[in-house]
């Protein structure tokens, strides 16, 4: 099979296409014929050397969609459509950047859909994080206001769609003026141009600040996001588009505004119920839900996809199709 292998951190040239043996599938494992895989900042961090505990060389990729090729002793049948995500994929064992991947059964979610594989490949990890951030990280309710810092990311678009579905009012930021109209076209109630300090503008719109905020840019904008949130509001840290995720010399009393709560979210395959995935796919197929734009690349252009993500050239999700 063809696979993309990362031998050591560095430039995109370190992502090499190789011919590898078909991976075995033992008891408790599922071998998947990969049809598409979404690209994530996680894999960019891995390539740049920011992934602690990752083994190299490795086939990257924390998610994939395809069909079951082998599942000895499992409840899954060959040919069944499945998504696989997280649980060490692309970090401690070979992941989704390949024509076949073998993963533990616990990381596999079955579904049924006639959507194109490129569309299906854009959904699992993004939906998992968006759903978990809203339900666990923020406990967002109907009628509340939500600020998404990093609105034109794949996760930003997906979270906005789910939040509006809940009945929330959504504010979302972008650093690029030409993307403000794109945010509005995808249902954002208040697109906000991000110059690094949006708290004052957010409070002009909402009055006392937002009820909830999702921080996807990282620690450089976190203080301003906290300042845009009302007393007893919640900020959930769930992304690192800036590639910065630590706060030097953290002094909580000075750093956190009085009464504003700070949480985080990081989920797994078990955090995305199969019913939630199936419902989202059904609604995408029906045209009643959109998780944002999708940029599609062939297998031999994985490096181009990485370049585009690294340099913020695309809006939404990048997906590679294997055939």
UniProtKB/TrEMBL annotation:
Leader sequence segment: none
Domain of life: Bacteria
UniProt cross-references to SUPFAM superfamilies, sorted A to Z: GroES-like, NAD(P)-binding Rossmann-fold domains
SMART domains, sorted: PKS_ER
GO molecular function: NADPH binding; oxidoreductase activity, acting on NAD(P)H
Pfam family, one: ADH_N
Keyword set, alphabetical order: NADP, Oxidoreductase
Family matches, as InterPro entries: ADH-like_C, ADH-like_N, ER, GroES-like_sf, NAD(P)-bd_dom_sf
Gene3D superfamilies, per database record: Medium-chain alcohol dehydrogenases, catalytic domain
Keyword Oxidoreductase: yes
Domain Enoyl reductase (ER): 10-320
Alphabetized PANTHER family for the sequence: QUINONE OXIDOREDUCTASE PIG3 (PTHR48106:SF18), QUINONE OXIDOREDUCTASE PIG3-RELATED (PTHR48106)
Protein name: NADPH:quinone reductase-like Zn-dependent oxidoreductase
Organism per entry: Paractinoplanes abujensis
């Amino acid at each position: 099979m063809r696979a993309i292998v990362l031998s050591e951190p560095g430039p995109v040239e370190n992502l090499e296409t190789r011919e590898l043996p078909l991976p075995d599938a033992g008891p408790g494992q599922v071998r998947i014929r990969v049809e598409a895989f979404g690209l994530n900042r996680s894999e960019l961090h891995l390539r740049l050397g920011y992934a602690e505990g990752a083994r190299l060389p490795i086939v990257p990729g924390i998610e994939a969609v395809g069909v079951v090729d082998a599942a000895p002793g499992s409840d899954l049948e060959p040919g069944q459509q499945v998504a696989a995500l997280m649980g060490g994929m692309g970090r401690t064992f070979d992941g989704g950047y390949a024509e076949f991947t073998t993963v533990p059964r616990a990381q596999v979610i079955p579904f049924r859909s006639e959507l194109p594989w490129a569309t299906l490949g854009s959904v699992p990890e993004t939906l998992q994080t968006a759903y978990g951030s809203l339900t666990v990280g923020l406990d967002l309710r109907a009628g509340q206001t939500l600020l998404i810092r990093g609105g034109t990311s794949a996760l930003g678009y997906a979270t906005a769609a789910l939040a509006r579905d809940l009945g929330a009012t959504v504010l979302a930021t972008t650093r690029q003026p030409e993307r403000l109209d794109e945010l509005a076209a995808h249902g954002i109630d208040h697109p906000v141009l991000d110059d690094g300090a949006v708290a004052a503008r957010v409070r002009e719109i909402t009055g006392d600040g937002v009820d909830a905020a999702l921080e996807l840019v990282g620690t450089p904008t976190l203080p301003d996001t906290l300042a845009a949130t009302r007393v007893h509001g919640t900020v959930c840290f769930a992304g690192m588009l800036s590639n910065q995720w630590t706060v030097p010399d953290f002094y909580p009393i000075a750093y956190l505004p009085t009464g504003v709560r700070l949480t985080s979210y990081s989920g797994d395959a078990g955090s995305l119920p199969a019913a939630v995935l199936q419902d989202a796919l059904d609604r995408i197929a029906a045209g009643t839900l959109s998780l944002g734009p999708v940029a599609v690349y062939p297998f031999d252009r994985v490096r181009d996809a990485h370049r585009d993500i690294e340099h913020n050239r695309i809006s939404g999700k990048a997906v590679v199709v294997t055939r």
